[in-house]
Amino acid sequence: MGDFKFFLTGCLFLCGLFNYSYAISPVFEDNDSISFFELDDIDAHRDFVATKQFIDSIDIYSNPACELYNYSWTSERLNPYRIKIDSLPDSVFIDCTDFVYPLQSNRITSNFGMRRYRYHYGIDLGVKVGDTIRATFGGKVRIVDYERKGYGHYVVIRHNNGLETVYAHLSEVLVDINQTVTAGDIIALGGNTGHSTGPHLHYEIRFLGNAFNPTKLIDFGTKHLRKKEYYITRKDTYSHSQELKALAQARYHKVKPGDNLSKIARRYGVTVKQLCRLNKISTNTILRVGRKIRYR
Ligand SMILES: [Zn+2]
What we know:
The protein is an alpha+beta fold. The protein folds into 3 domains: 2-62, no CATH class; 92-245, Glucose Permease (Domain IIA) (Distorted Sandwich), CATH 2.70.70.10; 250-294, LysM domain (Membrane-bound Lytic Murein Transglycosylase D, Chain A). It has helices at residues 2-18, 44-59, 241-248, 261-268, 272-279; strands at residues 92-95, 108-110, 113-114, 119-120, 123-126, 132-134, 139-147, 152-159, 163-170, 172-173, 180-181, 186-189, 200-207, 210-212, 218-219, 224-225, 229-232, 252-254, 292-294. Strand 13 (200-207) and strand 14 form a beta hairpin.
């Protein structure tokens, strides 16, 4: 593809420079999204810009799983797709044959799922700073970024099989945006950057922007896949969707001086038992002022 692009760039650029009297016909007549170039009476600079647009327009078709992702390719956001779990296609085949386990460690330090006030969309694995981190499947790097209060240094890869993976809290990133990777390529070094209380890899698997529990696919105990041919289904892969819906509706009360569980329960029309269950506390728990208590 690289050679082909270089050849096209050269051809079109030279045509623009030396050929002012001929118009160049559209190259792909059956595709509206590819621009039509007329190179007579425009200068070489504009030819070059047009050529670059032409090359970019080819590029979107070379991105992994481009049809599935509606040709969207951006480094701006982790989930730019705005597709709800309920709207995901059901029973999508994912070819996982090129899988490589992403690191040395298989020590899970935190699981996918509910945390006190938010959802943990990945799985945390203990690392030593500087441990090699590898691409789980082949694909192309979509995001390399840094979030001081969140992921720290992190990488997002779109894979050829339609999945996307996230690798966060890295000490060093060894790939660039738009770089093509093969499963098992070293992409980064493990670390403790961003919102992290000890060296670990935060690892996510997403499909059309929606994270699912990586243990659905990977057996971290053995570092192998559960299935090489995986089918994504809303019922099984996204069995946590009810939890997410409940979390989206969650409401909190900030504890003030003089508050107690009965008082809070009365105020919101719930029972003390419900408050205890929602907040994983007992009736004897001392309510620190400023603590958030979930009542719905
Ligand atoms: Zn995490």
